[in-house]
Predict the structure.
Amino acid sequence: MSGVHRYLPLSEAERAEMLRAAGFDRPEDLFASIPAHLRLQGALDVPGPMAEQDLLADLTGRAAENRVPDPRAQFLGGGAYRHYQPSIVDHLISRTEFYSSYTPYQPEISQGTLQAVFEYQTLICQLTGLDLSNASMYEGASSLAEAILMADRLAPKKRAVLSDRPHPEYAQTVRTYLAHIGVEVTTFGHRPDGTADPQAARQALAQGASALVIQHPNFFGCVEEVETLAAAAKQAGAHLVVAVTEPVSLGLLKPPGALGADIVVGEAQGLGVPLSFGGPFLGFLAARTAFMRHMPGRLVGEAKDVDGRRGYVLTLSTREQHIRREKATSNICTNEGLCALTASIFMATLGKRGMMDLARHNHAKAAYARTRLEAVKGLSFPEPAPFFNEFVVRLKGSAAEAVQRLAGKGILAGIPLSRYFRDRERDLLVCVTEMNPKAEIDRLADEIGRM
Amino acid sequence: METRNLRPAEGLLFEVSRPGRRGADLPPLDVPAEGPHHLDRRHRRDDIEGFPELSEVDVVRHYTRLSRLNYAIDLGLYPLGSCTMKYNPKINEKVARLPGFADLHPQTPEEMSQGALRLMHALERALAAICGMDRFTLQPAAGAQGEQVGILMVRAYHQDRGNPRQVVLIPDSAHGTNPASAHLAGYRVEQVASNARGCVDLEALRRRVNDDVAVLMLTNPNTLGVFEGEIEAVARVLHDKGALLYMDGANLNAFVGQARPGDMGVDVHHLNLHKTFSTPHGGGGPGAGPVGVKKILEPFLPAPVIERDGDRLRFHHDRPKSVGRIRSFHGNFGMFVRAWAFILAHGPDGLKRMSETAVLNANYLRRRLEKTWHLPYKEPSLHEVVFSDKNLEATGVRTLDVAKRLMDYGFHPPTIYFPLIVKGALMIEPTETESREELDLFVDALLAIDAEARRDPDLVKNAPHTTPIRRLDETAAARNPILRWSPDPRKS
Amino acid sequence: MSADGIYPDDLKYTKEHEWLEARDNRATVGVTHYAQAELGDIVYVELPQVGSAVVAGEAFGTVESVKAVSELFAPTSGTVAEVNGALTDKPDAVNRDPYGDGWMIRITMADPKEVDGLMSASQYRKYIEDEAN
């Protein structure tokens, strides 16, 4: 077999020369330090090799096996949101200087990345109404877990109180992260309208807690009473942690920081990061200044160089794993740098007007869908609280079956809640974004009505 | 090498912003703008204070200029030890962007996502074959999360046997994520000493291991680039006392196709798709940290797990002994596509040739540098080699200065001051995708810097001289942190 | 690192490079010249609350430079009577004047005799010289 491969720059002759120059007789001698009986005799059981042409054909075929309706007729939310990505976003993140560069530990040759992250941190603060943001985390669920751990570091009470309304996968992740850290998690209930119950929150907080945690809008689409819950948290000496899974909602809703939230955390995939079957996504974390030295993840700060020029540098690194090791604020190292850049460019492109208009459009479309569905006989709405771009509709029969049948008509109507909650057989979580034209919303309502 | 056409700094988005500009237009709203379900004023914000206002052209220029301030692997070598900064194939970017993958919503029903599931399943099987393990989870978003999941599974395994145990043993040469991850799983961390060869001290380990030790976390090859030759004996010592062996697979590039962790007595290990499997570093991620396990740990894998059901693949959620979820959805799928394409492009022989070339390149550098630069450990190197600044002691020039001066020669520096067991460490890993010319230029640069340090130490101590920005006052940045732009002079 | 930094004779010293000045049952504690030189520019000092207990040999806070963090170990047991709040804004005082403006905490000692077990200046100088070799 030829030793030359398109990614390996050495020719056979160069290889032989370098082997000699490095002091080896045969290629096998390079691995003399591996005990002989551990050396593989046969070939690895993996497919390939493939030339590019064949690779492209193979993967194109594989991608085509995902047979989905036209995105304009998809109404899926539940923690991931389909928004239009302006063409310059992918164009700019495809610049090799951004995507093929390393973590900016050497600031002198990474000012592009560092300044972009500084801008990202600022944009997140502006959206959430808080003072500080980190450079990104993996995705929303683990970020929420990290936020709770952070709240407990600042005010160690070893207890967190969670609403029963966040995304179930977020609640599960929180439990996994907190399982062995000695922070107890208590859940409190919700009101008939679908929002977290402040009275129940107060009761749960009575024994003391470092964090009161809600999702806003919550998993069922309901806009929460952030201010009331913030007051309840404050009174109990706890921090209000607001998880957000649909960041576009922040273009319309009052920033949680202005309503008394101490930490706003969650999923920023909705800011132009591709859906990509669930990842890579973008966890964000914003907090008040008091949390600065307890923040997990990287932080970029402003600095001056020896010539007095303004620049940017990773800072407060002593919080992190490579210095503080087991006492670090988190174990996170590689995060979601390129996704943070994607979101930054998205936010910069839309700008103030664009973000607010985008949010308005999403809300108007969802409100229209709701109004159309309310006119269909036999449907009800078990979570009547105000919503942003997602809401629950109760069908006459099984929601999972309805989704199947509607898929046959080229519509992905929503997420059957039975996927997460066994007792919610008839309930469907419907999300509408700016990507759904009126005609498709009408068709959704008509087809549901026809069932 | 010249600093490649880099330019001075660009203002911040908020400084180049002009009121009234916009960079994107939405289609006209085709539904009513008001109605009974529209949120009333009390929920709404009036403004996003400080948010920038830019035209599309402004945005394109801003980020294009910013990009030119960055070094990148497509410009030249990054000899970063333990990072495996190899070439990122462009076909991988193309296939990851296929709409069938990139636009696939994670809540899409399984019947409609069979292509994605098949790719994940195939990747799992390929990784299992490459590593000699029984199963893999693809859920962890990065190596550190992989370590966390791995140790959580170890804990669940011990708990299932009645005693979770107390301690994780970690060598003093380990990466910081190791103890940080162990701590998150509720374990106490204890250090295990290295011997004179830089490997785990087997006798010290034997003395320490008893039934309060859950697992030893071992990097192989270790952070000196040396193969842990006694790894099987290490595994036996652990297994004899019911403890497990975790391998940090960050350095897997050293022996893919030559040997397999599963054959060495390893019970669980992570690997980094953004290292060994070429997915781009993105300026700090995204990555992916799949974790391989032997059968004994299979019940504890994070849920859901992909299983074949007739001719279909399904997510199995009902896993009573699972450690649970570590994140939302299925993992960094976009990176799976890239890694899978990488494996397909190479095939079995290509992967073998990959590790062989990586080790050849590292040894070539070692041979050309070891007469001039101090080599603290003389054991055979695999894919990386660690030097120190000891030979420069009399000059006052330190590893940090050498790293900064390398930038003037057009290179990203190696990993510095790691591993901690070497004072002034310079950890060099070229990877297999470097040409001889690039390696020779790098050697020439390091030899030149050694000469400069002796002849004109200040030249090195004040480096870099030619980069867009020079050494930053990191002390002041840490004493008075400014972590965001603000419209007024007050700092946050 | 040689021992030609200043190590006042009227102070006591620990193996973890803290100094202690005893006056009746009050002890003032900080880090030595050696410590601040090893750490480099100090960017942050984390100190306990007034009134909290400290135990000899156990950590009572941390001191950070840009690239390193070190724990601060109590040379003696007791209660924290005073904390040098000025270090929040001026952590560099630890570099400039480790025995003066760089003082960290004052302890009301539980057992003033504990101090006898600490090193003298000459013992400490020898200790750091040995460490260097």
Q: What stands out?
A: Chain C touches chain B through ten residues (CB under 8 Å). Helices of chain C lie at 33-39, 86-89, 93-96, 121-132. Chain C has a mean pLDDT of 91.
